[in-house]
Design brief:
Strand content: under 5%
Helix content: 40-55%
Keywords: Membrane, Transmembrane, Transmembrane helix
Structural class: mainly alpha
Shape: elongated
Order of helices and strands: HH
Number of strands: 0
Radius of gyration: 48 Å
Amino acid sequence: MVYGVLYVVLEMVGQALQDVGWARVTGLDVATAVTDALLTVAVCCAVVLAAQLGWRRWGPSLRAWQQARLGETEWADEPIGVASWRPAPLALPAPVAPAAPKSGGTYAPNPYSQSRHRFPEEPGQLL
C-alpha cells in the first residue's frame, strides 16, 4: 500500500510539473506540486481513518441493535382483531318490479298496416 501511495504522489507531482512546462520549472513549482500531492494523500488517509474509527466505535452497538431488532420480529399466528369505524352497511333497496309487457308485441306497429284510412276525410287543414 505504501508503494501505491508513493506512486500516486509521484504521478501527481509529475503531472503538475508537466502542466508548468519542463523548461520553466522552478523550485517553487516543485514545492507546490509536492504540497498538493501530499495534501491529497493526507485528506484521503484522514477519511479512511475516520471511517475505521467510526466503525470501531459504533460497529458493536449497531450489530447489537440489529440483532435486537431482528429478534423482536415475531408474528402471531392468529389474525389481529380490528374494530371498524364504519357504520353497518345499509340494507339493499327492494328490487324494481319489471314493467308489464305490452300487449302488441316487442316491436312498434307498422304505420302502413293500420286499419284506419291514410287520408282522413274529417274537417281540418289538408295539404
